[in-house]
Please model this.
Amino acid sequence: MDYQQTLDYLFDQLPMYQRIGAAAYKADLNTTIEFCKYLGNPEQAFPSIHVAGTNGKGSVSHMIASILQEQGLKTGLATSPHLKDFRERIKINGSMIPRDAVSGFVAAHRPCFDRLNPSFFEMTMGLSFDWFARQKVDIAVIETGMGGRLDSSNVVRPVLTIITNIGLDHMQFLGSTPRDIAVEKAGIIKQGIPLVIGRRQTEIQDIFESAAAKWGVPLFVAPDHFKVTGSAVQVGKGLELRAMEVEHLGVKHQYLTDLMGDYQAENMLTVLQAMKVLTLPDGSKVSENAVRKGLRKVIANTGLAGRWQQLMTNPTVICDSGHNMDGIGRIVTQLRSLPHDQLRIVFGMVEDKERKEILRMLPPDAVYYFCKPSVMRGLDAKKLALDASFFGLRGKTYDTVQEALTSARKDSFPGDLIFVGGSTFVVSEVV
Model:
C-alpha cells in the first residue's frame, strides 16, 4: 500500500474515536499491552514525560518538547488529534514521521491488526513508541488521548507525570463530575514518579494528594510556586510575542512565548514547574537558557497550530481549538478583551458534546455563522442554530466551515473580529 492507501485503511477499517465517538472506546488496556508486547515493548526503550488533563495538555506537551529540543535532546512528541495531517501526531524534533514509515509499519503488522483489532488510537500509540525507539530518541513527551487510567498511552513508565487541570469533558466515558474525572486522570500517577499539577482546584485536590501519598510520589502544584504578575503582547523582529512576568521565590522573571492565548499563562506556569522538577536521563537539569529559548520558539520548533492562531487581518480572523466549557470560557474572555467593532463567530460542534452549557457561555451580541465540521460526528448546523436560539444567539447556517467563513469575511468591515471554533474539527478546516 502507498501512503494514501495506508491512511484509507487506518481511517476506514479501524475504529477511531474522532470519527465515530463511543463505538471506538475501549474500557481496558489489554489490547495496548498485548500490541506493545508484540512490538517488543518499544515504550520501555526511552524515558518519557506523560501529560494528561482536560485542557492545556497539548500546549504543555509542545512547550516542553520545544524546551527539550533547545536543551539539545532528540525529543519525541506524541499528541492527538491532528489538524491536517495524520503525521502531526508523531514528531521528533518537530519533524513529522515520514510517510513511508507509516506505510511500512502498517504493512508489516497487518496480520497483528487483524488478530488484535486495535483501535485507531492503540495503533497510533504503538506506531509512536516503535518510531521513537527505532530512532533512539533521548526522551519523549507523550500526551494522553482521553482520560488517563485507561488511555492507551498509560503503558509508559515516565520520569515525570503532569496533570494540567480538570474540567468537564468526555463525561460519557470519564464520569459526570470533576471528582470522577480527576480519578480517571490520576490513573497515570505511578510509583515514585514526580507529579506536577497545573491548577489548584480545591474540590478535587485531595484526590491527587491521596494518590501521591499512596504511590510515594512527590507532588508539586505549579501555582503554589509560580505566579504570573504581568502579561503583554510585544512585537520583535516582525514576530508577535507574549511577554509573561512570572514570580518565583520572590523574584520576578520575564519569559517570551509565541503562543498568544491568554490561557497560555497557566500552561507556562505548569511547564516552568515541570522543568524545575525534571531530572534528565544523564542526571542533569534543564538549563534556564533552554527554557527561555524553547518557550519563545514553540511554534517554530514543534509546528503547534490551532491555539489562538491569527489567520488574517482586516478583518482580524482568529481560530482556537478549545471545545469544552473551560476552554470556551477562556476564549470568550479573551475575545471580549480585544478591541473590535462587530464580533462574528463561525461556530460548529460535534454531536456528543454538552453543547447547551457551552452555548450558554457565548456572547449574544455576536453575529453567528453556524456550520457542520466534515466528520461523521459533526452536528448538523440547523440543529446547532436551533439550540443556540434558546440562548439568544442568532445567525445563518452553512453546510461547510469554509462557506461559513467566506460569508463572515464578506459581511465584515476592517474593524470587525471573526472567531472560528467550537471544535478541533472546525479549526482543522481553516488552518
